[in-house]
Amino acid sequence: MTKSKLLEMNNVGIVVENLDDAISFFSEIGLTLEGRGMVEGEWAGQATGLGNQSVEIAMMVTPDGHGRLELSRFLTPTTISDHRTAPVNSLGYLRVMFRVENIDELVTRLIKQGAELIGEMVQYEDMYRLCYIRGVEGLLVGLAEQLKEK
């Protein structure tokens, strides 16, 4: 039997309370709404282990077409825990990071819309400027601007 091989990372999933607000936030960063719809029924719950479920999802795609975020709002079953305000050194999902141009302009724009800068904007050697922000619903997002090609 031929060993399977990894082809691509399809998406990262983030559960939110307000899908419209999350779509707006990630659109502001530069992702595009690729599609939105319902995933429901026993078949979906068989994959997740949650049983009969009803989830509204929105798929957001990066400008290069390779990276995707699947934003999910669970109608049933209800969410059972909340990790959105966990600090950076917590176990499990923490953040998603995007490489951007003009990080200062983007951070200023996001702060005007209610995002919070975590710590400070820092520079890693002469290669990156980066920061963490808490955006919509307290989601932790990393932003990095590449200063020079590797």
From TrEMBL:
Pfam families: Glyoxalase_4. Keywords: Metal-binding. The keyword Nucleotide-binding does not apply. SUPFAM superfamilies: Glyoxalase/Bleomycin resistance protein/Dihydroxybiphenyl dioxygenase (SSF54593). InterPro entries: Glyas_Bleomycin-R_OHBP_Dase, MMCE/EMCE_epimerase, VOC_core. Gene3D superfamilies: 2,3-Dihydroxybiphenyl 1,2-Dioxygenase, domain 1. Residues 8-146 form the VOC domain. This is Glyoxalase. It comes from Echinicola rosea.
